[in-house]
């Protein structure tokens, strides 16, 4: 499973990625989780199983959906989960998005 996270510059999501990798490993989920700036994420979105947007770039959801072209689900991480760096909730969101 490939999870892509995007934010303005890719910096604020780095800690969340580390926590998500630990959570995925604890659950026995084989996941490639990476973060980056929005522009790079839009270039890679069709290679991912899900694209998660940081709440600070929720305005870019339409652009992300256009780039995904219906092939990859795009989800905005809620501010509370992002602020708490709640890896469990964010992993659950990613899994739910892929099932939909």
Describe this structure in words.
With 100 residues, the protein is α/β, with parallel strands linked by helices. 48% of the residues lie in helices and 19% in strands. Strands 2-1-3-4 form a four-stranded parallel β-sheet, sandwiched between helices. Helix 1 packs across helix 5 (87-99).
Short description:
The protein has 100 residues and is of the alpha/beta class. The chain contains five helices and four strands, in the order βαβαβαβαα. The two termini are 15 Å apart.
Q: In one word, what is the shape? A: globular
Distance N terminus to C terminus? 15 Å
Tell me how many strands there are: 4
- The share of residues in extended strands comes to 15-25%
Q: Round the mean pLDDT to the nearest integer and report it.
A: 94
Residue ranges: pLDDT <50 for 5 or more in a row? none
Question: With helices defined by DSSP (H or I, 4 residues minimum), what is the helix count?
Answer: 5
What is the helical fraction, as a range of percent?
Answer: 40-55%
Reading the helices and strands in chain order gives: EHEHEHEHH
Derived structural class = alpha/beta
| Order of neighbouring strands in the sheet with most strands | 2-1-3-4
Radius of gyration: 12 Å
* Major sheet characteristics: 4 strands, parallel
Write the layout of secondary structure elements.
Blueprint: E1 2-7, H1 14-27, E2 32-37, H2 38-44, E3 50-53, H3 61-68, E4 74-76, H4 79-84, H5 87-99
Parallel strand pairs: 1-2, 1-3, 3-4
């Amino acid at each position: 499973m490939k999870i892509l996270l995007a934010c303005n510059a890719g910096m604020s999501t780095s800690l969340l990625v580390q926590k998500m990798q630990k959570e995925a490993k604890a659950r026995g989920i084989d996941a490639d989780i990476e973060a980056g700036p929005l522009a790079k994420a839009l270039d890679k979105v069709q290679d991912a199983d899900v694209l998660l947007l940081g709440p600070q770039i929720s305005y870019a959801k339409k652009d992300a959906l256009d780039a995904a072209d219906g092939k990859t689900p795009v989800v905005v991480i809620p501010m509370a989960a992002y602020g708490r760096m709640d890896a469990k909730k964010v992993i659950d969101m990613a899994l739910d998005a892929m099932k939909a």
